[in-house]
């Protein structure tokens, strides 16, 4: 599950970090510390999200499907 969460973190962190940077730039906050802070906040927020997604996907793969 840890490997799955790590791969998901790469995807989720880049998406959330990019969205946060886009939002900051749309608000015309052009200072370097504001842009870097938005990206860091997106990366920190991605940690629990990727852990939850990894756990849900791992558990779904472990349980047998009812339709199969």
UniProtKB/TrEMBL annotation:
<keyword id="KW-0472">Membrane</keyword>
<feature type="transmembrane region" description="Helical">
    <location>
        <begin position="32"/>
        <end position="53"/>
    </location>
</feature>
<keyword id="KW-1133">Transmembrane helix</keyword>
<keyword id="KW-0812">Transmembrane</keyword>
<protein>
    <submittedName>
        <fullName>Uncharacterized protein</fullName>
    </submittedName>
</protein>
<feature type="transmembrane region" description="Helical">
    <location>
        <begin position="7"/>
        <end position="26"/>
    </location>
</feature>
């Amino acid at each position: 599950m840890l490997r799955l969460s790590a791969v998901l973190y790469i995807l989720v962190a880049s998406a959330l970090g990019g969205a946060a940077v886009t939002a900051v730039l749309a608000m015309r906050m052009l200072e370097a510390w504001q842009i870097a802070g938005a990206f860091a906040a997106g990366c920190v927020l991605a940690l629990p999200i990727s852990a939850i997604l990894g756990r849900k996907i791992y558990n779904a793969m472990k349980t047998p499907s009812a339709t199969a």
